[in-house]
Amino acid sequence: MPTAKAARSSVVWAIWLIGVFSLFTLVLGFGAADLVGPDAIKAAPGGANSAAPLLAYQLGGEILLGPVSAVAFATILAVVAGLTITASASFAHDVYANVIKKGQATPDQDVWVARRSRSAPS
User: Fold this and answer.
1) What Cα–Cα distance (Å) separates residue 85 from each residue in 21, 91, 94, 115, 120?
2) 41, 59, 98, 119: least CB-packed within 10 angstroms?
């Protein structure tokens, strides 16, 4: 069972991970600027968004560029999937609450529709 102590511990871990990630982005940006060069980054397709792939290529060639590109692609897919799920749930709820129930849906019905629109029928 979750406790207040476990919640505080999770928050502390989250803060540390977010902090480390934020510092890592600084190191990545300054490393790319130093090793690749600002002019090469600006001239690359994608501009500033290409700093990490260019740094990966500079440090490890195609061997390191592959995983960095795969992570970037997986991130894009995850964001698109999340947006699609959110949009479909919102649309299903709005159609149900405003069209089918004509604004008379109860909170319990709203929750039921939200849950059903996010899961596959069983």
Assistant:
1) 26, 10, 14, 11, 12
2) 119
pTM (global) more than 0.90 = no
Which residues fall within 8 angstroms of residue 31, CB to CB, at 6 or more apart? 55
Sequence-distant contacts of 92-96: CB under 8 A, at least 24 apart: 92/116, 92/117, 93/117
pLDDT tens column, 73-109: 999 999 999 998 888 778 777 888 888 888 888 888 8
Give me the amino acid identity at 2.
Answer: P
Q: Which residues contact 68 (CB under 8 A, 6 or more apart)?
A: 52, 53, 56
- How large is the angle between the packed helices 4-35 and 51-94, nearest 10 degrees? 140
Secondary structure (3-state) at 60: helix
Q: Which amino acid is at 31?
A: G
How many domains in the chain? 1
